Amino acid sequence: MTSAEMPASSGSISTFDITAKDTHQSDPRNLATGVYVTVHGHFYQPPRENPYLDAIERQPSATPFHDWNERIHWECYRPNAFARVLNDRSEVTGIVNNYEYMSFNIGPTLMSWLERYDVEVYQRILEADAKSCQRLQGHGNAIAQVYNHIIMPLANERDKRTQIRWGKEDFRTRFGRDPEGMWLAETAVDYATLKALVAEGIRFIVLAPSQAQRCRPFPTTNDPQPEWLEVGGSQIDPTRPYRCYLPGDRGLGNINGQLPIPHDQCPYIDIFFYDGPISRDMGFSDVVYNSHHFAGRIGSAVRGDHRQSQLISVATDGETFGHHKKGTEKTLAYAFIKEFPQHGWTVTNFAHYLSLSSPTWEVEIKPVTAWSCAHGVDRWQDDCGCGGEGGVWHQKWRRPLRNALNWLRDQLIEVYEESGKQLFRDPWQARDEYIEVIRDRSPANITRFLSRHQTHKLTAAEQVDALRLLEMQRHSLLMFTSCGWFFEELSRPEGTQILRYASRALELAGDVAGVQLEKGFLKRLGLAPSNVDFFKHGAEVYRQQVQTAQISFKQVAAHYAISSLFGNHKNIEVLHPNHVVETLHATSLPATSLQHHQKRVYCYTVNEIDYQLQRMGALTLAVGHLKLVSEITWESESLVFAVLHLGGWDFHCCIQLFTGRRDYSHAKEKLFASLQQASAAQTILAMTQVFGDAAFNLQNLFAEERHRIMRLLSQETLTRLDQLYTQAYRDNYGVLMAFHRDELAVPQELQVAAEIALGYRCMTTLRSLEQDITEPQLSWNHIVELEAIATEAKHLRCRLNVPEGKQILEQLILRFLWRLLHDANGSFATDIQCLERLIDVGYQLNIGISLHQSQELYFSRLHSHIVPLCLTTVAHAADTNQCLHLLKLGQKLAVDVSAILTQLK
Hints:
This protein is of the alpha/beta class.
């Protein structure tokens, strides 16, 4: 999320097992002594998935990345998994997994995306928690989060419970253990939320210091009724944990002044308050750009009152490290492994510290608070001024939006209870356990889930309704994601996103129960005034940005039909989230098992029952019969399509329900007969007669596939232009050189021609190298050609604009390196020469290549493979030539190998 969305000072929660704690503390060797430091990162991204596709579509504002998740991933999540420690020559001396040392929570919706997009980083995060468990006596760094970041004090009791249960179960299935603490969205809290957390076994949370009202030490024999200290102005001491008893259950001494009621009889939750000033500095000053300064700032909070132990805990938006503040993941890494230990501080997490130092103070919190709003939680329900971007725009839309969604939630509860009781033994228990399906949508798992909760053996139609109801409830929770209210305007992407979830919930309610709730919802949204004149109010935002994004089965079929014209339809490429090309196998299908060829379009299975394509001159006509199945709800439709490509950008696609084989055969015969006349008008007329007037075109495709087809359609023209520019460049090469020789300004037309021509030549060579990478001589020839291009570009001062070429080159270097380090049958001398020259030419081309992944691969083999090889070579006085080459390669990759090189000399 953005820095504005999350505090530069936000914390996390922790808890501990009472029995384990007490047993642990009975051993004096396990008591906390000295200074402990916890740096907590709250990692979270607002849900961005299209509710109909279960995938994030391209977001142009994140360019050059596909979407904001991807952009922040490469700037923050991955760099923190492979944080560099550098020497004074900017060489890598260590790679640190920061998640192994920092306390963290990662939102479940973000973790799901990481699991799909970069399984290597996802595994590094899981491994980091496991290693921190090993280092900290079973207490891992990771804590859970309420599932989709809703403001808990504004949620009803059921939604509170489901958010906690989903967050716990998501955590458990990923990290293999129960969470000890839970992150509250925006640290928003009240006593009802604490009660829900305690009921679900959560033992500790982290709050902002401003959320405490008063505190006091536990009663003792000498002081059975200690006085409360008012700390409402952020004056609470953040260096110790506190115990918060639920109202009416405080652990006070009894009437005879004896010791407090035994803790295991009093409901409570433990609370950490992060250090506010330092946490704010982390977000809004330069303190995290230098590990020495960061350690100094941490040290300034250490209390010199000779207490046995104290915890300095700071918390911030995890995206601070690398995304908001570039390169600061390196600061963290060095602080964790060098600076903090040099001060004698123990790097720990909240749960571990609790296991060593049980609270000795009690706290009461303010009634309803959050870190980022001075008005309780009004930022998420009222025009309180918070998030107003300087006060230019009002937030009068917040209350009507909250009211509209609350009304819709309550209407959906009625639908769910009335329809759900026919299908589920306990509808609300089914919802609480639906997280098991969200985590694993395999048909076998869904079948097990339905069998466990059904009132009777469900028919296929009832299974669909059961899943629709559960999805309706999932979207009713997603529509309360906090980001929708955080900023100054309803029509922003965050507000639009939660309205799309509401729209999907409305649609599912109508599908199951036939209720029409949209009119009432729009009436209430009409009371939410927009700051943008074009929209006027929330109802118009809904009509313009939500209804237009709704997707039907016919649109999915049209997408498939038009895409089928571009490639072998039996092996059609379907762009799936994050550019994954995927084919669905028969074993992955729900319930029904069809014998036809199957593919996947986002979260839909496409069963191609029949397909026929004919071309006539410039016209191409395809007719087909499909069965589409939603992998989410198991809904299905059998559809017939016809798509006519008139050439260029012109497509005419029609869809209708399948009404029988006879009708389909007749329609197909009629359509192909019309094509024989080689008349686009006649073919379109026949399509209209068969299908009606409704038609789809290229604009109706989902963005990913539309862009792919646009690129394909443009390719011939672009290739022709590249060739023309190349010819112009060749014809005027001498003129260009003369201008440069005499240091005259080169005519723009000639300079552009040179840059395009050299870029085209570079891309052609890189693609050839990709194809021929296993052929040493061909690879060598391509590298020589790249060197010539780089030399020419330098002489002519050309800036090559080849972003795709940058990616190809980075992957080529990685592939060459992997083969060199892992393939014992390779030709070492040739491979290392190719690799060294390829790295050099990558820099010479000046296209901004990154060698981070290659660095990581080399570093992972340095101590496990390369160093032992070199030491063995030295010990046996053998030829050190191979070792020297491998170490010089490390230098080229900016990895510090100086100590090993010294031993070889």
